Amino acid sequence: MKLNLSSVRIRAGLSQQDMADALGIKKRTYGSWERGEVTFNAAQLVECARILDCSTDEILGREIPVNFSDPREAELHRVWRGLDVERQDRLLANAHDMEKALDWGGELETQPPAADLREQGPAIASA
Known about the structure:
By secondary structure, the chain is mostly helical.
């Protein structure tokens, strides 16, 4: 089983020191957990999951099968899980903006992909 403690912590935007402080342990001890040198107990696992706002299965690297009836929903879920918290917030804000535009009967503004913007010059890419 592959321990995902480090990747979940990074995705949450926390440092090892942040986690150690929240858990009331030394950074060195926490680091040894991430490296798999020392095993944490069940209560510590649950507390890590609470701090990181994730499941214990996610920390332990267990894949939880999620069934989606629409493959597009599955793709959105996969993308979401790979983003850090800041990017998740940006994606969610974009989705809300899109939802509002559609609710108001408006048209969605489409922009060319970032590669197209770069080809059009720096003034457009930075706008």
